[in-house]
Design brief:
The structure is a single chain. This protein is mostly helical. The chain folds into two domains: 142 residues, lambda repressor-like DNA-binding domains (434 Repressor (Amino-terminal Domain), Orthogonal Bundle), CATH 1.10.260.40; 157 residues, no CATH class. It has 16 helices and two strands. Strands 1-2 form a two-stranded antiparallel ribbon. Strand 1 and strand 2 form a beta hairpin. The longest helix has 28 residues. The structure holds a DNA duplex. It comes from Cyprinodon variegatus (Sheepshead minnow). Pfam families: CUT, Homeodomain.
DNA sequence: TGCAAGTCAATACC
DNA sequence: GGTATTGACTTGCA
């Protein structure tokens, strides 16, 4: 966007050009506002593409990074939208999701790691906040300018329809009327029914999906999507729990886990194996309770990898105590992200002023839990192995 | 073909 | 007005 250039005056980020090929970057109708898909150039890394950097990046502590980013954004009164569109090339909702529920590094695909590398680089840039502030000012200026001109023209300020515009159609750049599909909003009863169905069968057959759809008067695609999304979101909740259980830090240390904080809607939506009774998700680890709640009730914690690959609460020395902070001395070298992990060997929740949660404070409890987790994972591993052999006689126990 | 992962974008919520 | 939630979609993989 124009504002990007005016602030940076730099050659484009390799990713920016890539992103722009993914998203149409036609003339900027927003009057200079940044758009998702056009992140700022990476400071001091112009010779490397972001993909290369992601590939070369050591393990990053996604929780520490998101924590720090949230902190910086809040402290400087910068919004997720601006940050997402400018720095990450993502929309506000995606940023919110990423910041609230970061997946551990080892669970992320290369693409999923990209925003975290960007965040880390942004944190390492001593002028990061400054640049974003400039961007904010420019946006405001552009907005005021549009407002003035539109007022004089007698048009709506934003040039958009007020209220939901779906079904009313919106004007595409080409001048074609495009009907937007109305967003399906599932009612509490429908959600409840779907959750019950999920508890019985996390992977329903096409026939079951059909039945559910007709019973609930929904499209089959809606039911399919719901199951996909639900599985995916439950899995993510589990990742968070995993981290909490393993290291006593992460979002939970701030009460951030959606499963632990009260559901806003009061529907218990966000993590719903809480209601599950013996739900079996055959893909997530045969026989493992589909939700942590049940495991916890039995005094158990679930970790997905033997030994609880407790890698996330690492790398904090810099990210949370100065490295990542704008203007900090940490990571000033071109690839500061590499120094991050190297500095992490001694890091822990205690070194970061992040209170450890629950029994993780007690080393003995922690050890016990890890042993249990390792044992559990061993069992899961064997079950998975067994499951891959159709003939029960080949099962190894 | 079905799934996971990642993301968008509408809308709910604060 | 900013943030959180969530249905839908795209992509890549097996």
């Amino acid at each position: 966007s124009g504002s990007d250039e005016s602030v940076n005056g730099l050659a484009g980020d390799p990713l920016a050009s890539q992103s722009s090929s993914l998203k149409p970057q036609s003339e900027d109708p927003s009057g200079g506002e940044s758009q998702p898909g056009t992140p700022l150039p990476l400071p001091g890394h112009s010779s490397l593409s972001i993909q290369e950097m992601v590939a070369m990046s050591p393990e990053l502590d996604t929780y520490a990074i998101t924590k720090k980013v949230k902190e910086v954004l809040t402290d400087n009164n910068l919004g997720q939208r601006l940050f997402g569109e400018t720095i990450l090339g993502l929309t506000q909702g995606s940023v919110s999701d990423l910041l609230a529920r970061p997946k551990p590094w080892h669970k992320l695909s290369l693409k999923g790691r990209e925003p975290f590398v960007r965040m880390q680089l942004w944190l390492q840039d001593p002028h990061s906040v400054e640049k974003l502030m400039d961007m904010k000012r420019l946006e405001k200026k552009a907005y005021m300018k549009r407002r003035l001109s539109s007022l004089s023209d007698g048009h709506s300020v934003d040039g958009v329809l007020s209220g939901p515009d779906y079904m009313q159609g919106s004007q595409s750049p080409g001048g074609q009327q495009q009907l937007k599909k109305p967003r399906v909003v599932l009612g509490p009863e429908e959600k409840e029914a779907l959750k019950k169905a999920y508890q019985q069968k996390p992977y329903p057959s096409p026939k079951t999906i059909e039945e559910l759809a007709s019973q609930l008067n929904l499209k089959t695609s809606t039911v399919i999507n719901w199951f996909h999304n639900y599985r995916s979101r439950i899995r993510r909740e589990l990742f968070i729990e995993e981290i909490q259980a393993a290291g006593g830090m992460g979002p939970g240390s701030e009460g951030g886990s959606p499963s632990l904080r009260g559901s806003k809607s009061g529907e218990g939506d966000s993590c719903d194996g809480t209601e599950s009774e013996g739900t079996v998700d055959t893909r997530q680890g045969l026989g493992m309770e589909d939700h942590r709640g049940a495991c916890k009730d039995q005094g158990m914690e679930v970790e997905s990898e033997a030994g609880g690959s407790n890698n996330s609460p690492s790398q904090l020395d810099c990210t949370t105590s100065g490295l990542a902070g704008p203007g900090s001395s940490c990571g000033q070298t071109g690839l500061g992200i590499f120094s991050l992990t190297e500095a992490s060997s001694t890091s822990s929740a205690s070194s970061t002023n992040i209170p450890a949660s629950g029994s993780a404070r007690n080393p003995r409890d922690n050890n016990l839990r890890k042993k249990k987790a390792a044992n559990l994972n061993n069992i899961i591993h064997r079950l998975e192995k067994a499951a891959s052999k159709e003939d029960p006689s080949e099962w190894e126990f």
